[in-house]
Amino acid sequence: MNLNDVPEDFPRVAVPAVVTGVQPKIGVREIGGRYVAGQTEEERYERWDICEDLARQLVRVARKDEVEHPDQSREQALHRVRISVSQQGWCSEDELDWLIGRLAGLLQA
User: What's the CA gap between 85 and 91, in Å, rounded?
Assistant: First the structure.
């Protein structure tokens, strides 16, 4: 695992939690004796690795979709893939934006 493999444009989780109540609260976790807000670099790497793997798997799906719908554009194929992945709930909306952009790049290669 190389944390430097994560591209800068891969999204970060900015606000980890919203807690209701009268008293002000901060959504943090204790990890290794330190309080951490948001993702650790390791957690971000793990999310990127999942999304990168998924994007690579979806290349075949998107190409099949393009063959099945030769009269439609690549953007339309990507839109259909996006809808399918979104319905699965595998990633956040920000991650899905990144994933579809990565998929588009892989299809151009």
Answer: 8
